[in-house]
Amino acid sequence: MNLIVYTDGGARGNPGPAGFGVVIKDQATGETIEEHNRYLGSTTNNQAEYQGAVFALERAVALGAQAVELVSDSELLIKQARGIYKVKNADLAQRYLQLKNLETLLRGRVTYTHVRREHNKRADELANKAMDER
User: What is the pLDDT of residues 87-101, one digit of tens each?
Assistant: First the structure.
């Protein structure tokens, strides 16, 4: 099964109360398989973005995905994941390594797509819900 996962993370304050949202869809049918959100406590926006992406790939592995397209409106996350930007922040470097380790479990069949925020609405709604319901 090939999956498309939409992820979004946010923090109110940066750092501040943070959360992420994840929507997992069957790439062939567009059917939503799972939706998740999680409150993260106080952290930065970039940490929340990475934690959402890591969680999404963990779920893809658990679901037995053959290939994954990870979609996010975080330009930093996508460009770092693609190797375009270097990861200079030590805390983000740990999350980046988690992401890359999960890629190996998926045999490197992970692509990263940047979209504008309006094309990532459901993941954004879930991230905000996590922050609202803390």
Answer: 999 999 999 999 999
- The two tokens of residue 48 are 């929340």
C-alpha 101/C-alpha 93 separation (Å) is 12
12 Cβ contact partners less than 8 Å away, ≥ 6 residues apart:
18, 131
CATH number at residue 21: 3.30.420.10
Whether the CB-CB separation of 80 and 96 falls below 8 Å is answered with yes
Coil, helix or strand for 97?
helix
Distance of CA 125 to the CA centre of its chain: 14
Structure confidence at residue 134 as a pLDDT band (50, 70, 90): confident
Q: Look-up: residue for tokens 């975080």?
A: 74
Residue 85 φ then ψ, to 5°: -105, 145
Domain that includes residue 74, residue range: 2-132
The number of folded domains in the chain is 1
State how beta strands 110-114 and 2-11 pair: unpaired
